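Q: what sequence does this backbone want?
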């Protein structure tokens, strides 16, 4: 036999294609009451891991709440979290909630931003990726915290991309934000904190095409400049699992980035293995097949 079975070639090609067609993803985009153009349309591809079907019903003017793992103002209040839909349009067990711990009221102090100064029809010229940065929650100063919670995510293992940027409030100044992971409900475990900074001023928006620069710094004095997302990998899902992600402003007492703070504008939950990994596995298999076919053909000549 001088060729690989066609059935194997078809299988490996299907694996490569699966990386772009069957990924399990939940996308959550913030807006300000559903004004036109604030979020990607259902069929628009957007995000660090490009997907369709974003949950666009997170209204920052009236956000779903989920006081987990803690609510310092009312520990018995579990809130009213939002049930999430995946990129195939199926309702999942996953939930999303939003809390503010800078003040005792939800929108006191840590204000909500209308997407860097642009709302509604003004967003008509933005790409779907840019629209993900419209409608954001801010933690402008030290002591203000915006917290998002994810519960019961239906994937055995998943990664979380949090679209976040920092904003400066005047020319020649810097903005800095940070996001820390917490897990658990009865017993809370603190995870890593990532820092991101920027000289971009309020009213700006990432240029197109959005570059998706990951914030990797864990050093408050050396944030990742120009970053526009934070990544937390290898989280475990299932019923009863709870994660919270706390956005904080700069610590003015110890940080030179004391101009302004950070913003969160969208969240993407991607099942592991990610589509890019699945696609690479398929392409590697195809390459091995091609190598094997060439080797068999050479052997036939001798």
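A:
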């Amino acid at each position: 036999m001088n060729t690989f079975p066609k059935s194997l070639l078809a299988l490996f090609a299907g694996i490569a294609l699966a990386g772009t067609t069957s990924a399990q993803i939940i996308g959550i985009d913030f807006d300000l009451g559903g004004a036109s153009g604030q979020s990607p349309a259902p069929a628009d591809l957007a995000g660090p891991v490009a997907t369709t079907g974003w949950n666009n019903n997170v209204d920052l003017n009236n956000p779903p709440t989920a006081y987990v793992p803690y609510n310092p103002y009312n520990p018995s209040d579990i809130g009213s979290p939002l049930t999430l839909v995946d990129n195939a349009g199926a309702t999942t067990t996953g939930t999303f909630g939003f809390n503010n711990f800078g003040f005792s009221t939800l929108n006191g102090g840590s204000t909500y931003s209308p997407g860097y100064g642009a709302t509604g029809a003004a967003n008509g010229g933005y790409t779907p990726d840019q629209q993900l940065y419209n409608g954001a929650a801010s933690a402008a100063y030290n002591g203000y915290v915006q917290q998002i919670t994810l519960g019961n995510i239906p994937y055995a293992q998943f990664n979380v991309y949090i679209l976040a940027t920092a904003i400066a409030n005047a020319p020649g100044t810097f903005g800095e934000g940070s996001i820390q992971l917490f897990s658990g409900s009865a017993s809370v475990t603190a995870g890593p904190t990532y820092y991101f900074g920027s000289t971009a001023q309020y009213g700006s928006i990432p240029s197109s095409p959005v570059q998706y620069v990951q914030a990797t710094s864990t050093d408050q004095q050396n944030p990742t400049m120009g970053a526009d997302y934070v990544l937390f990998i290898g989280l475990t899902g299932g019923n009863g699992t709870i994660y919270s992600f706390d956005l904080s402003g700069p610590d003015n007492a110890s940080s030179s980035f004391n101009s302004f703070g950070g913003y969160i504008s969208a969240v993407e939950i991607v099942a592991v293995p990610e589509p890019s990994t699945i696609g690479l596995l398929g392409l590697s298999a195809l390459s091995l097949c091609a190598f094997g076919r060439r080797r068999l053909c050479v052997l036939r000549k001798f």
